[in-house]
């Protein structure tokens, strides 16, 4: 049997239906099923609660083409034995009660809230699950503004469900890094096939996970490589650079160069309002460490993201 191209469409090997009503505990569920892996999944389950999810379908799924490609690349990158496989789960959320397969066949497509693919690679120093990808219906909060989403199709226990939203994913920091994920998030709706695998991206860049062509904590993607991937996706773009303090750009100081440009927020805002997301790349407090994030929308709520990120993810430098 031909495998699905992406894990969200993969065949189920076993499944379990779980009700989210009382006395269900998200903390207890995650501690039991995915110990030592809380923050990203807690955020996803919080979204499910916000959308008044009633049922979860937890599936063990077969290896899809994109998963097979990543595992083959991990074999090369980490000198693993041939045939390396991962543990894979698909978690799907519904705002209607689903009690068995028959009731799943009867629920409306509109009841499908979103999904998350969880992948665990049993590799030394990297042996923990990650959110391989997730798409969730956007919130209807009046103060939140998001445009430019695309439809993704997810197979749940043999039935296909559409969900419109943006993709969220975590890099493995071995064969893909934050820039791969960010480009996938913002540019795949322009791609002829509707999505890109990480291997496709690396092949464009000539990264084969051998010799000098390695990714990881010491090597992310450079700006010109990110631009190559955006071109490959078929998206149009504008690129603007804000140099770091002390950089000499064409005989001018970085301060002068900054003053010649509009504040980056003034450029991102109208782009988002027009339905076009942005990529924001910046340095952290560690001079050797950079990061790239997709900017998909804006909110007029009090900002609550920076304190959480500062505490649990990375230190944002004083200058962006």
Main traits of this protein?
alpha+beta, two-stranded antiparallel ribbon, 10 helices, globular, 29% helix, 320 residues
Structure in words:
The structure is a single chain. The protein contains ten helices and twelve strands. The protein is α+β, with helices and mostly antiparallel strands. It folds into three domains: 1-170, no CATH class; 173-237, no CATH class; 238-320, no CATH class. A six-stranded antiparallel sheet has the order 1-2-3-4-5-9, sandwiched between helices. The protein has a two-stranded antiparallel ribbon with strand order 6-12. Strands 7-8 form a two-stranded antiparallel ribbon. Helix 5 (178-187) packs parallel to helix 7.
Number of helix segments?
Answer: 10
Main-sheet strand order equals 1-2-3-4-5-9
Helix and strand pattern: EHHEHEHEEEEEEHHHHHEEEH
Radius of gyration: 21 Å
The rough form would be described as globular
Unreliable parts: none
Structural class given helices, strands, pairing? alpha+beta
Helix content: 25-40%
The percent range for strand residues is: 15-25%
Secondary structure: number of strands: 12
């Amino acid at each position: 049997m031909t495998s699905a191209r992406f894990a969200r469409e993969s065949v189920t090997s076993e499944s379990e239906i779980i009700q989210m009503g009382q006395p269900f505990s998200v903390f207890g569920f995650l501690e039991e099923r995915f110990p030592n892996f809380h923050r990203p999944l807690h955020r996803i389950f919080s979204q499910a609660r916000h959308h008044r999810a009633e049922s979860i379908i937890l599936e063990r799924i077969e290896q899809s083409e994109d998963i097979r490609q990543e595992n083959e690349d991990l074999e090369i990158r980490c000198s693993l034995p041939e045939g390396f496989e991962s543990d894979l789960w698909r978690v799907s959320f519904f705002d209607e009660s689903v009690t068995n397969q028959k009731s799943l066949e009867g629920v409306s497509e509109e009841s499908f809230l979103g999904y998350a693919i969880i992948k665990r690679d049993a590799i030394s120093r990297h042996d923990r699950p990650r959110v391989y990808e997730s798409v969730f219906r956007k919130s209807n909060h009046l103060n939140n503004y998001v445009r430019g989403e695309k439809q993704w199709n997810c197979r749940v226990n043999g039935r296909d469900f559409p969900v419109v939203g943006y993709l969220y994913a975590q890099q493995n920091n071995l064969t893909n890094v934050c820039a791969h994920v960010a480009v996938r998030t913002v540019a795949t709706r322009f791609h002829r096939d509707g999505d890109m695998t990480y291997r496709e991206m690396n092949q464009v860049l000539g990264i084969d996970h051998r010799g000098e062509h390695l990714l990881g904590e010491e090597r992310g993607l450079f700006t010109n490589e990110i631009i190559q991937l955006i071109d490959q996706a078929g998206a149009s773009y504008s690129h603007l650079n804000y140099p770091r303090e002390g950089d000499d750009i064409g005989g001018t100081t970085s301060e002068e160069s900054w003053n010649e440009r509009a504040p980056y927020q003034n450029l991102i805002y109208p782009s988002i309002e027009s339905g076009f997301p942005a990529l924001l790349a910046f340095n952290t407090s560690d001079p050797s460490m950079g990061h790239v994030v997709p900017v998909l929308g804006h909110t007029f709520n009090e900002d609550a993201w920076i304190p959480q990120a500062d505490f649990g993810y990375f230190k944002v430098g004083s200058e962006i």
